[in-house]
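Margin note: ligand = PRP.
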Amino acid sequence: MEILISESDIAAKVAELAETIRKDYGLADLVLVGILKGSIFFLSDLAKHLGVNVTMDFIQTSSYAGEKSSSGVVQIRKDLDSSIEGKHVLLVEDIIDTGLTLNHLRELLETRKPASLKVVSLLSKPGARKHETQIDYLGFEIPEKFVVGYGLDYAERYRNLPFIAVLTDEA
Ligand code: PRP
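Resulting structure:
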């Protein structure tokens, strides 16, 4: 494996993103919606830097199902626990790849009438985009390589690596 983004670079970027988000939302209540499972470490680290007005909920989708490329179909495996009507919602993603998952979730969640709906993603692969998407807060743009670690998996493995690494064919 080749380390693409180190643990310390991730930590610095998460703190920087949180600072921007804190300034933008001020004292408003904010619901962080983590998209399982990939966002778990990013969401928990980000939340620790945000203020007391933050609550968390989770939704689970899957389009990769153990494969290295998207199936093109987004399944909702677990829905939110609470209503988001009238609330400020920040969707928390680990990576935007084709853009399919994000677009699907935006459409779905907009129908529930949140006060606002924005997106923060740690990573984006612009070279892999198939669906036009808007990312309000972004950590890093990365090349079109298969990456694992800090929540990202290949067949459920490697999520617990503290850094982001490129998974080579040999690995
Ligand atoms: C991954 C990732 C994003 C999505 C991005 O999730 O966490 O949610 O794919 O890809 P896209 O832009 O092409 O839609 P996955 O479906 O693999 O589930 P996981 O988070 O549980 O690994």
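Residues 7-25 form the longest helix (19 residues).
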